[in-house]
Amino acid sequence: MPHMHLDTARITWLHTPTLNVRSAARRIGVLLFDGFWLLGPGTVVEMFQTANELSGARAGEEPPYEIQFLSIDGGSVASSSSARIWTDRIDTRYGSGFDVLFIAGGYGAHEAALDERLLAWLRSVQTRTRAIETIGEGRLVLAAAGPVEPDDLQLNRYLGSATIDAARSAANDRNDCARSALMFIKRDLGAELARNVADRVMPGMAATWVPLPAEGGTLSVAEKIRSAARWMEANCDRPVSVADAAQVAAMSERNFLRRFKHEMQVTPSDYLLQVRLRIACNFLTETELPVDKIARRSGTGNGDRLAKIFRKRMALSPTEYRARSRVATEA
After folding, report:
1. Using CA atoms, how far apart are residues 135 and 253, in angstroms rounded to an integer?
2. Taking the model in full, what pTM does it have?
């Protein structure tokens, strides 16, 4: 029986303490189960890993993405082709959710959709996850976990639709996975790097999937929005208004709000809150700073307001989050 073991140390960049806690990696989760389809998740990981390699992160800096294979019990998980992937167990370490969570496809999705432990975990993290992407039959698992509010979660626009043809070629499936990953890479790191990733992983597809910037060297609307988003991240520890961000994008406030929601799938205020929450989580995990000071450094004001945000978004207090993250790290 073929056996392939992928050591997570080679494809996963675990979050380690650094002086610059604000530069937190975006967390990408890939949920697997016995009988999953291997090519889709493999393509996703290759895309984000290549983005990390091409991002130009200096020694001691975190790459843009932290990538993790997950399963209900952890350990070795057999794909539909009997190749095996090593996974981490879903537990409290992932209670804060993900920037993107991919759910694998394959015949094993039918049984996974009946696993109450898996579904309970998925329900608990989906409201704290920015986007969920289903690969093929992975849509069955997400559907079994129950609906989510459309304003709370960006659902995949490419994968897992009800009209997927089971006989669709593996090549098309791989293209869909690659295109979906590139959508996020382009959003986070810009069109040029996304094109380089596409050229490296799927030569010949970059021109189709990641169009060049507007002619004449001017920035496209999407590039202006991403530039404003990066500015918001860099300045999230001080008061940031929509008017300020709109000025960075050289747009009116009304147009900026509309364009930002279309490009980033969240409002500017929600995006800024997600950035601040991620920074606060890192401070809680990696430092001994009091909650009030963390609130000020993450731009959330004071400890009371940060506690309200945590209870609303994560159903626990900052102190409880710190305790759980420490226990998970020591386990």
Report:
1. 36
2. 0.57
Q: Structural domain of residue 110, as residue ranges? A: 8-209
At 117-171, the pLDDT tens digits run 999 999 888 877 888 888 888 888 988 887 544 333 444 433 443 333 443 445 5
What CATH number corresponds to the domain at position 40? 3.40.50.880
pLDDT of residue 103: 93
Mean pLDDT of 290-310: 88
- Number of structural domains (the chain) is 3
In a domain, 3, yes or no: no
> Which pLDDT belongs to residue 329?
55
| Alpha-carbon torsion (160, 157, 66, 15), positive or negative | negative
